[in-house]
Write a structure and sequence with these properties.
The protein has two domains: 82 residues; 81 residues, no CATH class. α2 runs antiparallel to α3, α4 runs antiparallel to α5 and α5 packs antiparallel against α6. It is flat, with a radius of gyration of 23 Å. The strands form two sheets. It has a two-stranded antiparallel sheet with strand order 1-4. It has 170 residues and is mainly α. Helix content is 75%, strand content 6%.
Length: 170
């Protein structure tokens, strides 16, 4: 009995239908953002031709309308697919990478790419590899220092920096 419950828990997850609905919602939001932003810069037809947002605005409309059709099909369609797309266990593994990656992108905007990369590499080393603190600090800091030296000093390619780099005049 206990084995059966464990197997049932592992079989639960997102169905193909649910994944399609979620994806349609994300694409709809992207389309709305495209329309709002391109309308702001001009999405019409000027005396000398299309404004800069003319085509992107229409692409946003098409993406939004297509996502609405797909969303409605997932709710009311005749051929809805309720088979499991991804089990709960596999979804956890994906989220273990996805969520820190999103945090990394946001942290890059706040503290710069080098500090964010140090924390990202160190976090994964501790979480996934279960490395010791000395190894984590050495590898994550050394990696960011080498990348800083390579991009900022050797190649003269400025990457997003935060308050720490400002202390050193970069």
């Amino acid at each position: 009995m206990e084995q059966k419950q464990r197997e049932d828990r592992l079989q639960r997850g997102l169905s193909y239908n649910a994944v399609e609905a979620i994806t349609a919602g994300v694409v709809f939001c992207i389309g709305i953002v495209m329309m709002v932003d391109t309308y702001r810069i001009g999405a019409g037809w000027a005396f000398d031709g299309p404004e800069s947002g003319y085509f992107p605005f229409r692409i946003g409309v098409i993406a939004s309308l297509a996502s609405v059709v797909i969303f409605l099909r997932t709710l009311f369609g005749k051929k809805r697919n309720f088979e499991i797309f991804v089990s709960g266990e596999k979804l956890k593994l994906v989220l273990k990478v996805l969520i820190p990656s999103i945090v990394y992108v946001l942290a890059t905007q706040l503290v710069g790419i080098y500090v964010a990369s140090t924390l990202f590499i160190g976090g994964f080393m501790r979480m996934i590899d279960k490395s010791g603190w000395l190894k984590v600090v050495l590898i994550s800091v050394l990696t960011s220092v080498v990348l800083f030296w390579m991009f900022e000093i050797q190649f003269k390619v400025p990457l997003p920096k935060g308050p720490l780099e400002a202390l050193f005049g970069y």
